[in-house]
Amino acid sequence: MTAQPRIKQCSKSGKTTKLAIEGAEILTPEGWEKDATVLIADGCFVDITTNPDTNGYKKIIAEGMQILPGIVDLHGDAFERMICPRRGVNIPLPIAMVENDRNLLAAGITTFFCAITDSYEPGLRSRETARSLIDFIWGDGEHLLSCNHLIHIRHELTNIKGHQELCSWLKKRRIDFLSINDHLPPIEDRKKWRRHISSLRQRVTLSNQEIVDMLVELQEYRLEGSLQVEQLIELAHSNNIPVASHDDDSEEKVALSHQRKMAIAEFPANVDLAAEERKFGASVLMGAPNLLQGGSHLGWMSVAEALQNEVLDCLCSDYHYPSLFHAPFKLHLEGLMSLEKAWELVSSRPAAAIGLGEQKGKIAPGYDADFLLIHPENPIPSSIASVYVRGKEVAKYS
C-alpha cells in the first residue's frame, strides 16, 4: 500500500463557503465536461452537473473559461533562491516563503512538497535551515501560506550529524516525504568532483580549500551514513511516510531502491533503469524543466524519451515552478499527448504516487476543491485567471 502524508485541514476564514461555478469547460477524470456547473461545499467538490440545484450557493459565471485540477508538485526547491538570492545573502524566512508561496500559486501549484535538502553543507542546505523551514511551515506558515505545503526532506547520505533529530522528525510525522540523496562525488571521479565544487561555490561562503577539505573528510562517513539511511527508511515505512530514491544511475542502485521499497524514483538516468524502477512498483518522477529545455542538463534521459518509451509517471517543478504549468501544454502542442492526459502528469498521477490519490489531483465529488480557472484563449504565461485551494480563491490575476 502506498503511504499517505498528512494534509493540513485549516480554513483561514473559519466559514463554510458554497460555490457554484457555472458555464466552464471542466477537466474531469472522464475527460472534458462542457457548459457544466461545479458545486463546492466545505472545501470539497460536491458535484459536476449540467442540471444543478444552486440554491444556497454563491454563483460564479465562468463562460468561455476552463477549470483544471490544481497542480501537485512532489519536488520543488526554487524557494532556495528566495531565501538566498545571492551567496552569503539571506532573506528573513517569513518574507522569503510568503514570496515563494505567491510564485507557487502563479504557477498553478496548489499542493507543494517543499524539497528541503538536509545536507552536510553549511548555510542554505544545512540542518539548521531545514529545522527553521519545518518550524515555519508547520507554525506561522499555517496562517501565512495559501498553497498547501508539505515537507519533503532530501537527506544526504553522508550527513551523519544529528541523526537522532531526523529520526525524531520521522516518528513525529514532521516529515511527509523522504528521499535519499548522495551528491558527494568519489574522489577519483574528477569530472563530478569539479562540478560539485562549482555547485557548492554558488551556495556557501567557504574558501576553495575549505570546500575540498570538507568533501575529503565526508568520504569517511559513507558506511555510517548508509547504516543510518537504512534506519531512516525503516522508520519512514513504519510511520507510513513515502520514500524516494534519487538519481539512480546504475543497476546496483536500482536493485537497492527495490530492496528499500521506494515508492518513487526521482530522475533515473536512462530508459532501462526507469523501466526497472517501474517494474519494482516505483513511480518515475522527472523534472518539467527537462521538457522545456529539450533535455536533461546532465545529459541523462529526456522527458520526451521517457514518454516515448512509456517509463514516465509524474512531473515536478524541480528548480523552476512555471515549467510545471507549461509542460502539459507543450506536450499537447507537440503532439506527444492530449492535454487531458498530459495534465494527469502534474495532478492526479503525482497525487496517487505520494498516497493522496483519493484526495488531491482530480475534479470529482469528494476531492479537495483545489483548481485553476484559466482563459484558454490567452497566451500560456497569462492564462491563469484564479487559483482556488479547498474552495477558497487564493490568487486572482484577471
Automatic annotation (TrEMBL):
GO MF annotations, alphabetized? hydrolase activity, acting on carbon-nitrogen (but not peptide) bonds
In terms of superkingdom, the source organism counts as Bacteria
Ranges for domain Amidohydrolase-related come to 279-392
Any GO BP? organic phosphonate catabolic process
| A Pfam family that the UniProt record links to this protein | Amidohydro_1
Q: Which InterPro entries match?
A: Amidohydro-rel, Metal-dep_hydrolase_composite, Metal_Hydrolase, Metallo-dep_Hydrolase, PhnM
Which PANTHER family does UniProt cross-reference here? ALPHA-D-RIBOSE 1-METHYLPHOSPHONATE 5-TRIPHOSPHATE DIPHOSPHATASE (PTHR43135)
Q: Which NCBIfam families does the protein's record reference?
A: PRK15446.2-3, PRK15446.2-6
The name under which this protein is listed is: Phosphonate metabolism protein PhnM
Q: Which organism is it from?
A: Calothrix parasitica NIES-267
